[in-house]
Automatic annotation (TrEMBL):
Membrane topology note: Multi-pass membrane protein
Protein name: Gustatory receptor
GO cellular component, one term: dendrite
Primary residence: membrane
Organism of provenance: Diploptera punctata (Pacific beetle cockroach)
TM ranges: 6-24, 36-59, 71-93, 130-149, 169-187, 405-425
Record InterPro entries: 7TM_chemorcpt
Superkingdom classification of source: Eukaryota
Origin organism lineage: Eukaryota, Metazoa, Ecdysozoa, Arthropoda, Hexapoda
A Pfam entry, by short name: 7tm_7
Amino acid sequence: FYSSIKIFYYWSLIFGCAPYKFIIDTMADTINIKRTIFSVIQSAIAILVVFVWMMYTIIKPIVLNTYESNTTLVVSQIITVCFSGSSCFLSLISSVTINIKKWGFIFEKVLYIDKIILREPQQSYKKTKLFITLQILVTIVLLVSFHAYETLSKKNKMFYKIAMRIFVHVHNVTVTLQFINLVLLLSNRLKIISERLEELSSIFKNSIKLREQRQTNASLFDTQRYSLMGTSAMQNSTNNPVLGHETSDITLDNTNKLNILTGLKQLREVHHIICDILNGVVNSIYGLNILILSTYMFLSCVKYVHLMMIMVVKKPGSESLDLLNINSPGMMLCFIVLHLSKVVLISVACNNASQVCANLNSSINSLLLTYPSGSDVSKELQLLSIQTIHSKLEFTAFDFFPLDFTYFHMFLAGVTTYTVILLQFA
């Protein structure tokens, strides 16, 4: 498991999103995490620098009296920088303090789940590693291209401001990717539960076929025996049925029945752990951060869409553009596309996980129709069905709004509405 996430772990470590090290016990096959002195110092320095940068961004316009000439632009820039910096600031603090234990709990439970439901873990981990590697490469290419253009276009401007903005931006992107990857990983494990249920169904169907074949063979044997013994023997046989007819209501032999019951109990446990992580731990780690990031992305999109619309009528001066740390509509469009991409990815990941969990109950209900009512397997399936009904996945931004496709619709509607309002007042 560690090998599949190692690349993303080091990427997160660089930007202060993973202030811990892995302790792998190969003998016991366990993974633990531990806070290190280096990570604490790194996080403390990053927290201090981000805080100073935020204060500098707020105080500088007041000292230089920039509000008098460009009040709207300066205020909007300060607000967006505050939300972006606050997200990074709170994420750094929580990562090095309260989230360490939560991440340790997640890694421990995911490893336990994989031991139960993964038949070929190495194959699954290779796919995860490939997906994460491609994800990191695409992220690096996009961020380097965008910020390289921004840096070169500034020429002799203060590069430390750009460096701070790059660090905060990449940190926030990394936190968003952490959330998305964790949701996708656990939703994949929910899909595997559905696959295991289908396997149990195939075992049951094979048992039925085997029983029918045994009954057919027994009937042929009885017919041949009765034809040799005569009618009187056939009449007497009604009082002494053969073993096959006597146990015709039994559809599973003891071995298959025990395997299915054990498998269903394990699937119930795995389902409970996954839902507990997604509904509880993941929301507590990322809920507030996603809320602040969403507010920042929303305000940025409104600001840049509004400016691009204004530029169609009248191009603002270079001073106004410098206040926004941009030089062209192309850079504004890049910011808008980047923010919308993050909103779409969050919506798709959360909606996919919720849909997989909902479809799981449908699979269980169809499986219940196959098994005879009153059997031990049927009772276990009913317990699993009740568990899935009461364990619906709900992702929220600190309980302010849901993180599914309604989140994306609300985001687009809000940006459009406020842009129109600003244009009317302008």
